[in-house]
Specification:
Layout: E1 3-8, E2 11-16, E3 24-28, H1 32-44, E4 48-52, H2 55-64, E5 69-73, H3 81-88, E6 98-103, E7 118-121, H4 126-139, E8 152-156
Parallel strand pairs: 3-4, 3-5, 5-6, 6-7
Antiparallel strand pairs: 1-2, 2-8
């Protein structure tokens, strides 16, 4: 694995190439504070994590990388988490990430158990959520990455 620095907006980003068998996590939430918090903690635990601010961005990332786990907010503007679930439902089982739904509303009762591993209500216990994600990453099989996956990025302050 190699690393490089690049300017990303007005901040410096550390670009880290991801090996073919490395497990990745996708955090999808329109709330900037939640997204940054989860990314920071996951990366401090040594995990490779990417983020998307809405369903459209999530689907784009899912086309270019294979994720072991996805934390997915359901209620987002533009394309929602429901839209993402609808698209992933059409994929073969071996291509789907383990999906943990994050929701501020009542727990949805209509989620397909072959698609969603579990739900976590906001506000959530951060330690419990991170421990759950870590366990899912460790228990799941490594997924071969698509050819030339984008590097994982980490904003450097």
């Amino acid at each position: 694995m190699s690393s490089a620095y690049a300017l990303k907006g007005s901040k410096l980003a550390l670009l880290r190439n991801v090996s073919d068998s490395e497990k990745r996590i996708l955090v999808v939430d329109d709330d900037d504070a939640i997204r940054v918090l989860l990314l920071t903690i996951l990366r401090r635990r040594g995990l490779v994590a990417d983020a998307a601010a809405d369903g459209g961005e999530a689907l784009e990332r899912l086309q270019h990388s294979r994720y072991s786990v996805m934390l997915l907010d359901l209620m987002m503007p533009r394309e929602s988490g429901w839209d993402v679930l609808g698209e992933i439902a059409r994929w073969p089982l071996n291509r789907r990430p383990i999906i943990i739904v994050l929701t501020a509303g009542p727990e949805p009762r209509t989620l397909d158990p072959t698609l969603v591993a579990g739900t976590v209500r906001k506000p959530f216990d951060i330690d419990m959520l991170i421990d759950t994600v870590t366990a899912c990453v460790r228990s799941g099989p490594a997924r071969a990455q698509v050819e030339d996956p984008p590097p994982a990025t980490q904003i450097v302050n």
